[in-house]
Design goal:
Largest sheet: 6 strands, parallel
Radius of gyration: 21 Å
Helix content: 40-55%
Strand content: 15-25%
Structural class: alpha/beta
Number of helices: 13
Shape: globular
């Protein structure tokens, strides 16, 4: 009997070890965010410890020599799940039959550059990438846009890929979500995992609204609301919000480089939740298509909402009461997104 059970176990192990690899593309793959991200993906932190992966690294032609070095490093990690690494500057190679796309690469804002110029440059990039997704990727592909302005870039990519469901596109506001959770945790002197259900509403920009009206803090006697745990409404309405809104700029000022380690961690959190779902009773923040939303947000936007995820499908958390303070903040960030969208769509039609 033991021999039979052992044989069955070995057979199961052999089958699982031969699982079909998934294909994951990372754009801007020679950049510093990708450098912090690729190892975590390749070793199974995102898509599972039993899931083989083919990594496709896409960047612009001048970065190909750097990509060669990244490929060598990934090879030298000797990771059992990593079946292949493909460096490329061609979208037809980068997006071919992919299961997941993490679009990190974008045109960064340069000194003296107007926001309109930034939008124009990024519309061109994400129009091309959206069209390539439409033409070459699986229709089930999950697309995460990281490159800024992330919400509007995500909208342009989605509009340029009409055969892929809008629900398959999302943009990264998990970094802001993690920042908000961490600020509350430090204030309450608890670990970050004791804070749940913070919300980032709106744009991944300085107008975003970190909302803790529905968030909870774990305490020895049970969970309590953040307002009861912090006991400082002035901080929650003032410095807390501005700290989260301005955190990216503060990191740049200190490091002389943008957030990379924390951005990579947030990307992993976001994609892992898409793949495996959110915990029962908890929700996370993601920039998703606003169509049919219950919060009065203009519909043709990618806007950050609280979502729960099951079977790789997100659903907005419905029925949360919104007070006047929150309403004003949510509307302000929506107004910015509407302006961004309208400018971007002008460029898209040219």
């Amino acid at each position: 009997m033991l021999t039979l059970l052992t044989s069955v176990y070995l057979l199961v192990q052999a089958v699982s070890s031969q699982a079909e690899p998934i294909r994951v593309v990372v754009t801007g793959a020679a950049g510093q965010i990708a450098y912090s991200l690729l190892y975590s993906i390749a070793k199974g932190d995102v898509f599972g410890k039993e899931q083989p992966i083919v990594l496709i690294l896409l960047d612009i032609p001048p970065m190909l020599p750097v990509l060669d070095g990244v490929v060598m490093e990934l090879q030298d990690c000797a990771l059992p799940l990593l079946r292949d690494v493909i460096p490329t500057d061609k979208v037809e190679v980068g997006f071919k039959d992919i299961d997941a796309a993490i679009l990190v690469g974008s045109m960064p804002r340069k000194e003296g550059m107007e926001r309109k110029d930034l939008l124009k440059a990024n519309v061109a990039i994400f129009k091309v990438q959206g069209a390539a997704l439409d033409k070459y990727a699986k229709k089930t592909v999950k697309v995460l846009v990281v490159g800024n302005p992330a919400n509007t870039n995500c909208l342009i990519a989605s509009k340029s890929a009409p055969s892929i469901p809008k629900e398959n596109f999302s943009c990264l506001t998990r970094l802001d979500h993690n920042r908000a959770s961490s600020q509350v945790a430090m204030r309450c002197n608890v670990s970050a995992d004791k804070v749940k259900n913070v919300i980032i509403w709106g744009n991944h920009s300085s107008t975003q609204y970190p909302d803790v009206h529905h968030a909870k803090v774990g305490a020895p006697g049970g969970e309590v609301g953040v307002y009861d745990a912090v006991k400082d409404d002035a901080w929650l309405h003032g410095n807390f919000i501005s700290t989260v809104q301005q955190r990216g700029a503060a990191v740049i000022k200190a490091r002389k480089l943008s957030s990379a380690m924390s951005a990579a961690k947030a990307i992993c959190d976001h994609m892992r939740d898409i793949w495996f779902g959110t915990k029962e009773g908890e929700f996370v923040s993601m920039g998703v298509y606003a169509g049919g939303n219950p919060y009065g947000v203009p519909e043709d936007l990618i806007y950050s909402f609280p979502v729960q995820i099951k079977n790789k499908t997100w659903k907005m958390v419905d029925g949360l009461p919104i007070n006047d303070f929150s309403r004003a903040k949510m509307d302000a960030t929506a107004d910015e997104l509407v302006e961004e969208r309208n400018t971007a769509l002008e460029f898209l039609s040219q």
